[in-house]
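[Meeting: bench + compute handoff]

Bench side (C.D.) handed over the final construct sequence. Compute side (W.E.) agreed to return the predicted structure before the next meeting so the bench team could plan truncations. Sequence as handed over:
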Amino acid sequence: MQLDAIDHELLKILQRDATLTNKDLANQLHRSVAAIQERRRKLNDQGYIQSTVAILDRNKIDRGLITFPHVHMNSHTAEILIEFEEEVSKFEEVMECFQMSGDCDFILKVSTANLEEYSNFLRDKLAKLPNVSRVNSSFVLRVVKNITAYPI
């Protein structure tokens, strides 16, 4: 599917507010409701829109501490890396997991209530995974920018 200027604008708007109705979107984009509904369906079907979610205030739900553990593995076979990815994906504290090039093998984004909860997560879950040799943790002191919209 080739995206045109209207598709790009539609995606930009939806990244800011996915709760807008097709009628609202049609008014903003000067198109018919049916045309917007069809475009939105195609964008969903083609995987341009992966999901529609509510972004919560982490402080209001007692998940105020964000930590980025840099995980170093002692082996790098495909089986070991896949096993790590599968296991770490099961942890509710892990918001994101990235396999990296460079100094560490994985960087995680972990959300916990406080330092004690993170310490328990590190000791009782992450450090117990097979082939994890070292974890260096960085703690978020202040969020300067936090957006979810990609530039289109």
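W.E. noted at the follow-up: Residues 33-45 form the longest helix (13 residues). C.D. will use this when planning the next construct.
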